Every structure is written in C-alpha cells, then in structure tokens.
Amino acid sequence: MNLDFSKLTVYTNSLLAYRLFVLGQNNPLLAPQIIPKLEENGLYLAAANLAEKLKTSYSREELNNARKTITEKKNQIGQTKNLQNRNALKELFIQLGDLYFKYGDLVEAYAAYYKAHENNQTQEALNYANSWVTCMILSNNYMHYKVINVSPKDSDVKGYQKWLLLSAIRNYVRMDYKNFLIDLLQIDTNHLESVDFITSYFDLSKYFAIASLITKLPKDIIEILQNPFIIRILDADSSVLETLNCYIDYDFVQLIQKSQLLIIELERDVISAPLISQIKEKVINTLLKQYIINFKRMSLVSLANLLNLKQFEAQMLVENLIKTEGLNYVIDPIEMIIHEKYTNEQQQIRQCHQLGITVLKALDHKYFQILQDQK
Q1: Engineering a disulfide at 96: which of 112, 261, 288, 298 sits with its beta carbon 3.0 to 4.6 angstroms away?
Q2: pTM higher than 0.85, yes or no?
Q3: Which residues form a coiled coil (predicted)?
C-alpha cells in the first residue's frame, strides 16, 4: 500500500506528520513511507519509535541531539527536586513535556505534563493544559482529562481560545456532542488564528455536522449556522453544509445518503477512527428515527434499499430502534411493513376489514365453483 500525500494537503506539515505517526503505529508496514515525513518536521523520537516497530536500526545526529537536550532538562529537574521548589518544578516539567512533544514522543510528553500538574499549586492550568490535552487527543488517552481546570484568562486570550477548541474535541471523542457544541460556539475567530495545531477546518466541519445531526432539531441548526466560527468551519467543505441543508429541508432520502459519505470521510481521520462504529450507529439511529416518525407506514424493502442494507439487517435495526427509543411503531412480518401501533378501536376496525376480505374471497371462490358446475 502506498500513501498518496497529495490527498492530505488539507493539513499543515507538522499536523500531517503527527497524524502520519499515529497511522504508522497502527500500520507498521507504512512506516518506511512515513519516517521521512517525521524527520522533515523534527519528530525524530517518533521516527525512532516506528523504526523500532520494524526492528530496524535508526541513528541520526538530530536524534542524538534531541536525547541530549532532554537529558539536560531531566538533570535540571533532579537538581530542582532537591530544593523542593514546586513552582520551579512545574515550569521545568512543562518544558520537558514541550521537548518530548517537539520531538514526537506523545507518551513521555503526556507523563511530563502530568508531573507539571502534580506540582501545580495554583488553580490556573492554561500554560500546560493545551499541550497536555493535545497529547490526550493524539494518543487517545483520557485517563486524567477530568483533573484539568481552566478558566478565562485576560492575559492569554488566544491561549484560552485554543483551550475551548481542545475541550470541544475532547468532548467530541467522548461523544458528548452537547458540550462539544457549547465549547465550539464560544470560540472567537478574532482570537483563534488557526486550528491546525490539532485538527483542520476540513475535519472540524464534519465533527460539527455529526454533533448537530445527533443533538439538534432542524430549526435549531438554522440559528447556529449564523455563528462566525461555524461559517469559517463550513467554508472548508461545502458538502457538509449541503448535508445540513438536507436535514433542515427534511430531505431524509438525500440526508441519509450524504451522512453515509460523511462517515466514510471520518474513517480516515485519526481522531474519529477509534469511534467510527459508535458514530455510525448513533447517526443512523438518530436519522432513522426522524425519518420513520414522518410516516404512518412504510415498506421495509424500500427502507433497506435506502440504507443500502439487506432486508433482515434493516428489520433488526428498526426493531432495536423501536425498543430503545420506545417508538409507537411495530413491524408486520407478513406484509413486511413498518406502521404505527393500532389503537384498540383501530385494531377492531382492521380485524373487521380483514374478516370482510376473507368472507368476500370465500364467496368469490364459491361463486366461481357454481359457475364451473353449470358448464
């Protein structure tokens, strides 16, 4: 398998390098193509990590220099521990975390930022929170995400805007779409110059679409689309706005098809990839529920065709949705239709109707026999 780097130009080089590193960890056979990209962006520890997975030797002067710089910082930390100066230790651990992150070791960077947090004697964590949460997201490790407390800080407005974005993505990967949107809608485009330090507007537009489809009614999305930061996000991919417009217009046939394409796009995103099966299930269930409640009855065959599923798969999907969401619908296994539950009066009328059809068929059959006998 060869990587087509031309299709990955929506990312900056540094972001692309980190994403490629995550890809290489999961697909070691791609490592020979990825290592040069890591080296271009100074991620020598990441390159050494992938080389080790391939069981090949890796030696670079830049790697040795990186390790030397890290060792010097560790020596500083050791000396400061003897002085029992926790504030100085916090700053040194932040610097150590920054070095590990600069050279591509997410695990050690995460550990260093955690040590900084342990030595934090104040409530303010913004000076290391952004880097720490970035490590959490890229390494898919959220063991300590609850311990970080960040509040608006006048002296670092841009830093706080970055925190809002990182907090939003952290909520996205936890599938807390309500708080994802709350964070996202607080972002001021005047103070967030770029999102490329962790994601791209291209992918962020898709996160926004998923969260909106799952948590918002069509009328609510119309208002959100006026938000300046959301406008900036959607400019990166017009197909996402088309998908949301289908939802607003209740065009569920087009919406289901476009949302499936949206999920396919997310499969290549390292942030979304670990969650893709849950995202797919959540989106399909949400849209299917919205679709079904617009009809009193529908064919199970047509629904299966719409979802590109086999008939029995569509039937199981609907049965599960009826059970989990408490929908007032049932599946008729004989006629293979989905319909609203009948009231007692409707059931009696239906039974009378069915009885009448049965009697008429019997009379027709009897009349036909009489005609045959007269011949």
Answers
A1: 112
A2: no
A3: none
